[in-house]
UniProtKB/TrEMBL annotation:
<protein>
    <submittedName>
        <fullName>YVTN family beta-propeller protein</fullName>
    </submittedName>
</protein>
<dbReference type="InterPro" id="IPR051200">
    <property type="entry name" value="Host-pathogen_enzymatic-act"/>
</dbReference>
<dbReference type="InterPro" id="IPR015943">
    <property type="entry name" value="WD40/YVTN_repeat-like_dom_sf"/>
</dbReference>
<dbReference type="InterPro" id="IPR011048">
    <property type="entry name" value="Haem_d1_sf"/>
</dbReference>
Length: 227
C-alpha cells in the first residue's frame, strides 16, 4: 500500500536553546490543550510543543533528570518521573506549571511510567534498583513495590487481559496481572538482548519486542499468552 496523496510529513526543528537539553526520552499528549510534552533526561525539563502551530511554547524545569512522561486522562494532567529527586511530578497543562511532587520511597532511577485510567494507578519502573513501584494517584500514595526484570525501561498494558509488561535493558521481561487494584507478579524471564521496548496489541494479546541485535541482525520478537 502506498502513501496517500493527503499524507503530510512534518519536521520540527526547535531553536537551539541550552534550556531544552540534549537527551529527549519520552512523550505525552494532552488532547484538551493540543500540547505535546517531551521529557529531556539530561536537560531536566519537559519541553512543551503546541501541535497546532508546531512550535515550542514552554520549557518546564523539573529540578533533576527526567525519565518518561505520561498523560493522565482522569485528572487531565501530565506526570513525569524525576529520577534524581525520586519523585513523580504533576504538571497542569493549562498553565504549564508544576502543581505537585510525590516522593517515591525506595525508588532508584524511577524512569519508566505507565498510568492506567481505569484503576488510576501509576506504574513506575526504577532502572537503578530493578523495582516496580505502584502509586495510587487518587491520594498520591505508594501502595506496593515489586522486584522486576533488571534495568527496567518501557511498560505496556493489555487492559482486557489485565497483563502489565515491564521490559528491561538486560533482556529480561516481567509480567504482572492487574485485577482492579490488586497487582500480582506472574513471571520474570529472559526474552532477548536489549529487549527494553514493548508494545501490546489488545485485540490479539500479542506483545512485540524490537531487539537491537539477535544473531547479528535486528529482530522483532512476538509473544502471545498460552491458551
Amino acid at each position: 500500500m502506498g502513501w496517500s496523496s493527503a499524507t503530510r510529513i512534518w519536521k520540527f526543528e526547535a531553536p537551539r536553546d541550552p534550556s531544552s537539553g540534549d537527551y529527549p526520552d519520552g512523550m505525552a499528549y494532552a488532547p484538551d490543550v493540543h500540547k505535546l510534552y517531551v521529557s529531556d533526561e539530561h536537560g531536566g525539563t519537559d519541553t512543551v510543543i503546541d501541535v497546532r502551530t508546531n512550535t515550542r511554547v514552554a520549557t518546564i524545569p523539573l529540578g533533576g533528570e527526567v525519565g518518561n512522561t505520561q498523560y493522565d486522562p482522569v485528572s487531565r494532567h501530565i506526570f513525569a518521573n524525576v529520577q534524581t529527586r525520586k519523585q513523580l511530578v504533576e504538571i497542569d497543562p493549562v498553565t504549564d506549571k508544576v502543581i505537585g511532587r510525590t516522593d517515591l520511597p525506595g525508588a532508584e532511577g524511577n524512569h519508566g511510567l505507565y498510568i492506567d485510567p481505569a484503576t488510576h494507578l501509576a506504574f513506575i519502573a526504577c532502572e537503578d534498583n530493578n523495582k516496580l513501584i505502584v502509586v495510587n494517584l487518587d491520594d498520591k500514595r505508594v501502595v506496593s513495590t515489586f522486584d522486576v526484570a533488571k534495568e527496567p525501561d518501557v511498560l505496556a498494558f493489555d487492559r482486557s487481559l489485565g497483563w502489565l509488561y515491564v521490559a528491561g535493558e538486560s533482556g529480561e521481561v516481567s509480567v504482572f496481572h492487574v485485577q482492579g487494584r490488586a497487582v500480582t507478579l506472574l513471571a520474570t524471564g529472559p526474552l532477548g538482548p536489549n529487549a527494553h521496548v514493548v508494545a501490546v496489541d489488545e485485540a490479539t494479546h500479542r506483545a512485540y519486542f524490537p531487539l537491537k541485535s539477535l544473531e547479528g541482525k535486528p529482530r522483532l520478537r512476538i509473544t502471545e499468552p498460552r491458551q
